[in-house]
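fwd from M.: "can u put these together and see what the complex looks like"

so here's what she sent:
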Amino acid sequence: MRRPDLDRREFIKNAAAGTVLVGLGGALYRIAADDLTRKARAEDRSDGRPRLPPGQKVIEKLRDMGGDPGDGEAKNFSLNVHGLVKDPFVLDYAGLLKLPQVKQDLDVHCVTGWSVLGSTFKGVSLATIAEQAGVKKKVRHVIFEAEHGFTANVPYDEAIAPSVMVTYRMNGKPFSKNHGAPVRALIPDLYFWKSAKWLTGIKFVADDEPGYWEVRGYHNHADPWDEERYG
Amino acid sequence: MWETVKKRWRAWLRAIHRDVGYLAVGLTFIYALSGLAINHITDWDPNFTTFEKVSNIEPIDEALDDDAAVRVALDRLHITATPRSTYRAGDELHLQFDNRKIVIIEDQVTDQGASPRFFLRLANWLHYNRGKAAWTYIADAYAILLLYLACSGLFMLKGKLGLRWRGAILVGLGVAVPMVYVVWSGGPEAHNGKKAAVAVPAAEPDEPDEPDESDDEEADDGPPTRPPLPPPKPPTPS
C-alpha cells in the first residue's frame, strides 16, 4: 500500500503551527491598530481620574447591543416625571425641546468593555427637570424608566451632576432607533446601561429600587473607574 | 444479562453518543454561531445591519405649516413614498417610514434605518433566551445532552487512546485552561471592582416635608418595594 504524502502527525504539527501564526498575527494587528485606546490611556480628566477607565477599549461609535427597541418616534414620546416631587408633570417631545438646553462633550463607557469618547450630546440637564418638578427633601435615588419596563437606578446626588442629562442628539444627529430614539438618559460617569434608552419616565424616590440589570447580577452602582461591573 | 452489559457497554455508549450527537447538531450550530457573534459584540452588531446617511438640503421655511413643510421636504429629498407618520417640533422635522426614519434639523438630513440579520437575530434571541417560556426547558435539555456527550466521550475508547494516556492528557489540558485562566486573571473578585456599591444614605424618616397632595399619595402607597421584573426585552447591558 502506498504511504500517504502527509502522515497524521505531520498534519497536526502543520495545522498547529498555522493556527499559532494566524493567532499571533491577529493579536499584533489588534495591538498596533488600537491607537485611540493608547492615546486615551495617556490622558487625565479634570477630576484627576484617568480619561479611560480600566479594562476599556476606545471605539469610534456606539455599538448596538441588541434587544427589542422601543417605539422610537418623537411623535409618540412622553416622559413622565413623578415620585417624590411637588409638581409631577408629563413632557412630550416638543415640550422637552422648549426646556433650557445643554450641549456637552462627554465620554461613555459600556460594561462590555468599549468606550466612546468626546461625543457632543444635546438635551436637558436632569437637574433642570428635578428643579421643575420640585424634588422633595426625602429623595435619595432616581429611577430611569424606559420601554418594556426597563429601569435603572442612580443615586440622586450623582443624577443631578452637571453632566447628567436627558438627551436626544449625539454629534448633531438624532439617536437611531437601536440607540434609544427619540430620547435616552445619559449618566456618563456610570456604565452606559444606566443611561436608559427609549426613556419614558423619571421617578424620584427615597429608597433604592435596583433596576433591570441590577437585579440580574450587574453592579448596583456601576462606577467604571472602580470596575463595578458585576454585583 | 450482566455479562452482556459488561461486554457491550462501550459499544452502546458509542451508539448513544453518535445519536445524541446527531440530535445536538442543530442546537450546537445555533449556540456556537450565536456565541461567536455575541462574543465579539464590541466589534460588530450581531443582530442588525444598520445604515445612517447624513446630507444637506435647503432649510425648510419655518413659516410653512406642518403639511406644507412635509411636502417641501419630500420634494427636496426626491422621495415619492408617503411617510407612515410625520412630526415637527422645534427645529426638527421627522419623517417616519417602515424601517427608516428621516430627521431634518435646519439644513441637515439624517437618514437612518435598520434591518435584522435573518439567522443571527433569531439565534441570538434563542441564545439569550429572551422568549423564555418553553425555551428554558429546551435549553436545559440541550445542556444535559452536552453533559452526556462529554461524559460518554470519556469512556468511548479504551487503552492508550482512551483515558489511560492520550484521553487523560487532553482532558487534563481542557480542564487546566479555564483553571489557569481564573488564577491568572484573578477570577470574578478581581473584576467585581475594588469597592462595594456606594452606600447611599437612607431617607431620613423624621425629616418633615411640606404637606401637600402628592405627599399624601406617596404615603398611601406604603413603603417602596422592588418593582416586578419586567419582560426580558432590554438590550445587553451597555
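replying to her w this: The first strand of chain B starts at residue 48 and ends at 56.
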